[in-house]
Every structure is written in structure tokens, then in C-alpha cells.
Amino acid sequence: MKALVANKLGEADVLQLEDVKKPEINSNQILVEVFATAMNPVDTKARKHGLGGMLNPPLVLGYDVSGIVREVGENARTKFAPGDEVFGYLSIFGNGANAEYVAADYRTMAKKPSEINHVEAAVLPLALLTAWEALYDRINIQAGETVLIHAGGGGVGHLAIQLAKLRGAKVVTTASSIASINLVRALGADVVINHRQDDFVKSINELTGGKGVSAIFDCVGGEVFDRSLDCISPCGRIATIVEGGSANPSSKLFFKNATVHYVFIGAPLMYDIEPERQGKIIEQAAKLVAENKLRAHVSHVLTLEQLVEAHKLQESGSVTGKIGIKVHN
Amino acid sequence: MKALVANKLGEADVLQLEDVKKPEINSNQILVEVFATAMNPVDTKARKHGLGGMLNPPLVLGYDVSGIVREVGENARTKFAPGDEVFGYLSIFGNGANAEYVAADYRTMAKKPSEINHVEAAVLPLALLTAWEALYDRINIQAGETVLIHAGGGGVGHLAIQLAKLRGAKVVTTASSIASINLVRALGADVVINHRQDDFVKSINELTGGKGVSAIFDCVGGEVFDRSLDCISPCGRIATIVEGGSANPSSKLFFKNATVHYVFIGAPLMYDIEPERQGKIIEQAAKLVAENKLRAHVSHVLTLEQLVEAHKLQESGSVTGKIGIKVHN
After folding, report:
1. Closest residue of A to B256, CA-based?
2. Please, what CATH class does the domain formed by B2-124+272-326 belong to?
3. Inter-chain residue contact B246 with A248, CB threshold 8 Å
4. What global pTM score does this model have?
5. What tens digit of pLDDT does each residue of A150-199 get?
6. CATH domain A127-262 topology
7. CB A169 within 8 A of CB A145
8. Residue A242: its chain B contacts at CB < 8 A?
9. Does the beta-carbon distance from A265 to B257 stay under 8 Å?
């Protein structure tokens, strides 16, 4: 089968189209004929530095998939049958969906809603799970509470806005490009801070009378994480999906009695810690999609052959919503 | 009335017995005739550096109290009447209970259980709330889960052991003195690591087959916090009640998808964020005490006049359980 392979770590052009062996499945896996996959920041980090040394080439990237089940492992037969249209996310320790077929752990897969096509489905799982776990399971955002979402126009951020609104929260978000500002407004963001024009700490202090917000979802990291420590309220919760931030949060957060959630949703499948819980979240998301309450915004659709371009686009930081990758028509 | 006053910040001998004005109460306060108070690490930190500059002398310390209600503010009348025996904790922004009378916010006070005396009651609130919020409200420890409690023989730690056992958790704890080891064993600790003889990270790895524990309650801080990052399991939660720890947790915790809770239970009263929730916890603790399911271990009982000695004892780090301060017979 065809696959895009990184035979060494490095810039986007290490990715090469090759003929590789079709994967074999174990009892927890289903073989999925890949119709679409998606770009996520984790792809570019795996390609560049093996996620801080966790992964070694050769690598087949692409940790989101939507497609059709062709074979079903023994443990997966209560849930899936050949011919099922499915979508879900894949372990970063296995070969990904930048290929014609992929072996997927059935526990993080769900039936694809018929209301959306494979590309629209493939862009959901990783980003959706990240937003869901951060906002619902970790921060536990409450109705009426205000949450600051950094980079609300991004792949995870624009789904987070929708989840926060579904929960009845008030959303303040940062965005700067016209496309992002339009998107976050369309998704119901209550306040948009143009972070290229305004300092978000100052804006939050003005909005809250100096109290800060009780929930911050950081999809940017680095200085944005560090400065978030200055506008989280006492008893607040910060969730970050980006490694880094130079500050030790303790000195700013201790007397605030606050919490930092580091959110990396690959961990349950990596360490086999209840991945089926994530499968249930994807099923709930599928229901919300079917009810027309949740949609991923697909700003670009490229092909497997255009993955080098897709990586460069993802790394440019200029993408609004998600990049979908069409593998099969 | 008599009070022990710190007219400047510094070592324990800055504390002096003085005659000061009896406090006046506001509508959210009750005037409590102090029968007992307790030592907590926060007293020594307030005396030494004003809690990192938050407090300025003159200071009357002592943030736990047990005593008898003498006056009742307007908002407190549905809950308390003169003559009630009460216990609870006090705002660090007001004068404390190292005095014959104290004005206490009624929302963090509860009726004292008749099964214990004032000293036994006074040593509970701050330490109990700290352990309760960390283990129950933040970590949300589960039945059957293993929690590592650092310094299980300490003021907070020995209450944490009891709360974890009441929830059905398995307790691994560190202790080194004979008194502490005996205490934690008596309280039901399942595994005791003598941290002067054994490296706790190594011990946890041996106990868990290298997986780490999913819950750590750090009552020590510094290097103990930093090294806890090496034995928390993926998807784990660490709660620390000590400012500091030199490491930025991000690099070790991000791919573990883990959480750090900074627990400073003074925040709700300082910032007026649902302090009545803490009052309800103290009421639940009183019920557990009445049912003989929870007890503070009082290793020393000193008097108001012996507070300088009590501070030195607290700072020695050698106390098992709590130091109670008797103010009135």
C-alpha cells in the first residue's frame, strides 16, 4: 500500500511517498481503509523531534482517521463489523493514517455520523478529544462561568468554543487574523481579544474588574501560558495542551489555590489507561454532530501526495480551524 | 484583652504578650471567646516574612480557633447564638486567635462536637480543610486507588491518611521518626516508606512495577515536590500544600497528561469565594469526629504564654500530628 514515511527526523521534506506492507491487526484492532486523515501539531512535532525523543523513524504519521472497516480483531467484534464507516484517533506508538490502510485500536474509534463526509470526520477526533477532556473532564467548566480560550480560531480552540457554549459558559477568546475573528464570532464567542492589538492580561483585568477568569484553556503555550498565570483568578483552573511555558507556576498559583492541568490526550492509549473512555467521548461528539450542534471548520483539504505542503501550512501557524487530508475518494 | 503580638517580622522571639483592644465584629462575624487555638506552618511563615509580603505587622497570629460564641453578627444569627461552642478557621487578613477573643467569619465556623475538648477541636480546621480539599475536592481520590502522602505523620498528613482510608483508598506514606511511623501505622497506612533510609521514587517504582502512583499529596515541597514528578503515573494528580519546588512541572508532566493542584485553603476567605463551602466541610468533619471516625493527634499542648516555644517546635519539623494551644481553661 502507499504511505507517507519519515525515514528520518527533520523538516517537512523528510516525508516521502513509499510502498509499504499493509498492516496486520491484533485482537484489539480493526483494519481501516483510510478515506481521510488530518493534520495536528503532534504530526509536525513527531516529524521534527520524535515528540521529544519518544518516537524513532521510520514513522508513518497521521493520528486521526476516517474510513471503512475491512477487518475486525477478536475483541472489537461487539462494536464493529466490516463495512462500517468509522472515525477515531490512533496511538502515536503505532503507524498512523498517512497511508491507505491503518490498524486502529477499536477502543478509540466510533461510527462516523452519516451527516458528515470522511474529511469532516477525520479532522475531529484528536482536536475534539483535546478540547473535551480539557474543558469538560479536567477544568469542568460550569454554566455561566467565563473561560478564556487562547487561539480560539485554531484546530482545538474552535471546537473548545463550541463545547464551552454547549455547556452554557461565557467565552472570551484571542484571535488576530480576519478569518479567525470571523470564525470565533460565528461560533458564538462572547468577547474577542485581538491579541496583536491588545494585551490579553490587561483586557481580562478590565473585563473582570481585576479579579481574573476562573478558567483558562491555553492552546498556545510559552509566554501565553506564563502570562495566563497573571489573569487566572483565585481558585481557578488552567489547562494547557502545549508543553513548555518557562515559568514555574508555583510562585504565582500557590496563594491563588489554583490548578494546572497538562492535557495530552495521547496518554490513555499510550499507557492503556481506559482508552474506551475516549471512545465514548467520540461517540458523544458524533451524536452532537448528527444533531447539528458541533462542527469542525475545515479550512484546507489536501491529499496524501500534498502532505509536505500540509505540514508546512500547519507549521506556519496561520491555519484557521483544521487541515483535512483526503486519502481515498 | 491579652494577645500575643508580632510587632515586626522575624524569628519566634518577636512575639510578645500585650494588652490589646477586644475586637469588634461586623455583620458576617461572631465574637468568639478563645478556649484554644493551634499551630500551623502558616503561623511561622506569616511571622517570618508576612507570607511573602501579603501581611504587615502588627500581627496577631493563630488561624484555628475553638471557643464559645459571645456576640453574633446580623448575618450569622441563623447559624449561631451566644453560648454556642464552636470551632473553625480564621482569615489570615484579620487578627487571629492568639488572643482571648477573636472576631471570626461565621461562614467558616461550625458547632464543636461535644465528644472532643477545645484543644482537640482547635487543631482540626486548617489542617483538616487542607487535607479534605486536596484529597476529596481536587485530587478526588477514588476507592481502591493508591495515594502517596508525603509526611504522613505531620499535622495535615495524619488527617489525610484518615480521609484517604475513609474513602477506601490505599495509602503509601513517608515517615522517619519512630513516633511518626507508629502514628501512621495506627491510622491505617498500608505502606510506610522511611524516607531517611529509602529513596521514595525507587520505592514507588518497586511497589507499582514502574508505573507510578496516580495520586500524590505533597505536604513537604521543595525537592520532594520535584521528585514526585518522577513517580506520578500518567493521568495522575499531584496536590501540593507548599509553595515552591524548583522544577517547572511542564516538561515532566505534559506527556503524562497529569495535573498539579496548588492547595492554599486560605484563599476562599481571603477572596470571598464561597467560604461557606468550607464551613460545610468543617461540619462534615465534626460529624466524623462525633462518629469516632476521625481524630487529630495532639502531640503537644502549650499555652498562649508558651507560644514562642510552640513556634520553635513547629519550625523544628519534628512534630508528630499537631500542637494545640490552650488559651482558657
Report:
1. A267
2. alpha beta
3. yes
4. 0.96
5. 999 999 999 999 999 999 999 999 999 999 999 999 999 999 999 999 99
6. Rossmann fold (3.40.50)
7. yes
8. 254
9. yes
